[in-house]
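Lab notebook, bench 4. Still working through the backlog of constructs that have no structural model yet. Next entry is a single chain of 525 residues. Request: give me the structure tokens for it.
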Amino acid sequence: MSHYDVIIIGTGAGGGTLARHLAPSGKQILLLERGGWLPREPQNISAEEVFVNNRYVSADTWRYENGEEFQPQIHYCVGGATKLYGAALYRLRAEDFGELKHHDGLSPAWPIGYGELEPYYALAEQRYCVHGARGEDPTEPPSSGPYPFPAVSHEPRIQQLSDDLAALGHHPFHAPCGVLLNETNMAFSACMRCNNCDGFPCIVHAKSDADVLGVRPALQHPNVELRTDTEAVRLTTNPAGTAVTGVVINHGGTEETLTADLFVVACGAANSARLLLMSANDQHPRGLANGSDQVGRNYMFHNSQAVLALSLEENPTVFQKTLGLNDFYFRGPDFEFPMGNIQMVGKSQAPMFRGEKPGETRFAPNWSLEDVALHAVDFWLSTEDLPRAENRVTVDEKGAITIAYTPTNDEPKQRLFEQLKSMLGDLGMHHHHLLPHTAYLKNEIPVAGVAHQAGTCRFGANASTSVLDANCKAHELDNLYVADTSVFPSIGAVNPALTAMANSLRVGDRLLERMGVGSSSNRSE
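Model written out:
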């Protein structure tokens, strides 16, 4: 078949979720994936292979604005970035959808409010089997019901940390986690709570990723087709430039054009912008949907820090990513601006230090890397990155990506780090057990990490300042939609995956209505 009702380009949190949502409609749907199925192999759980040898990282070469080349930590495979994410599935706070004042400026309001997205958050939590507990986090937005699954329990060391934080007046909560876990009947649980989850592909398919819970359910429907190892090269339009007519694909060095009634771009923030820019034609000389000159601009990726607090006591925790803290999300002590989110990350393993921060092991010269990993309590800190027009993705005539980026909100980022150290210094759990504060190992996540990238095809009401309308349809083209994190006007300070999934479901309902099918939100699959 060469003509479809819908062609979806990308199979990650946006595209994979959308495919499952549209699948019951009976419409002819094609999924295009640049990579293949991520192999199930022993190396899936090798920290050496995953973090040092970059076994599952793409061979792409991108450039910084100064021309320096780097290898982005990006994954081309069915399920996209979700195959190796930590499955921390947070909702944005309700306030994140409005204009917020930050230390370095404003984060803009979204064209939709939290209330419009809430039903889709609820559906996304169901589809992705999210575990959590309502009512623990004072910043959490209103919800229409409980989490579909109970919170993942803390192991003893993390439970002690939670108790000690609460005793100091803080509000630790069970982090929302997408895993196929049944703690009441582990004999029948797909997830075994192993230490090879955060940053690893799940060898037993127990992580709630867009491959396992998006693409595979979609492919159970005979009207859904997937083409792997197939790169979308450019989009073509009708002579007037008012509608997309086809996508030129490259499979094994051979190009062909596929046609559809509707097209959805879901390649990730950098690559979605790249595809639109590479689709320039006489009617769209600056790139498709780029009359506003906003395609590629407002690139955001979170100001993130991985922090290891070293204790003289061993930390025997295996599945560590169960705790979060948002007490400083909107403001800090003696600081009127938002600081961000604190959460646990997967338990560190020795090879990770060689892969991620090889020069920083000097802080503990008498400790082996194995000792460091064994004694580490691992945190992830995220501060909101503000959208700036000059932070942008551009491409050359061959499609090579350049990222121009200057960080924002460095002051609240540093304050959040100091706040974490201050809290840990006050904890009974760590009293007399932490090494001096110089033993904190902090890994700043660079642009090359491309984690949580967003913002390059923002949606909005004003066609002169956005790429897409409130339904994520291109202002300038009648049948082109975008459904990934590139549509975000702001990024908040929590992991963006669940918001991408929820918005993809919302866009899916708009597509179903347009095709005369009606919402599938309540229809059996």
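Notes after review: The chain has a mean pLDDT of 92. The two ends are 24 Å apart (CA to CA). Flag for follow-up if needed.
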